[in-house]
Amino acid sequence: MKYTFIHLLIALCSFTFFVACENPNNDVEDVVGNDDDDDGGGSGGGNNGKNDREKRYTVMEFINGKFSYQVWVKGYIVGSCYSNIKNADFTPPFDGSSALLLADRPGQTDLDSIIPIQLTGPRRTYCNLVDHPENFGCQAEFFGSKNTYFRMTGMKDDIGAFNLWDKDGHLVEQ
Which among 26, 66, 112, 119 is placed 20 to 30 Å from 146, CA to CA? Predict the structure, then answer.
């Protein structure tokens, strides 16, 4: 009788443990964006974050979107900057290697249509215009969170990935 009670108690504890670990509503899928029923909020972004790992937002969509999660933004490298947006540099030779400026079209200089991207680690090694002036006018994309950087919309600190293409459209190896 004692052993039956112990076995019953173990079975009950095991059942409770496994049931407590299940997520019957699949809420985790909605938070991390793995649900295939939505495209990420369409133009300008949304708040649900679904499938945004695949979608590439334009710079203007990124500026105007309401994102509480990481997204890809793709544009052209139109300049560099350091310390303050007043130091924005749109013509070579470039002075600042700590940030680049991204826009929807090459040659864009209107600060309302540009986002600064913080360059640290490999991003600085491969993307900065001081060491790589050949990147000026090239396309690039960055996966990160929308933040305030140089007192304007941009990406800072929380940038998880990036890709860079040369002027011939070939992906630059990193």
Answer: 26
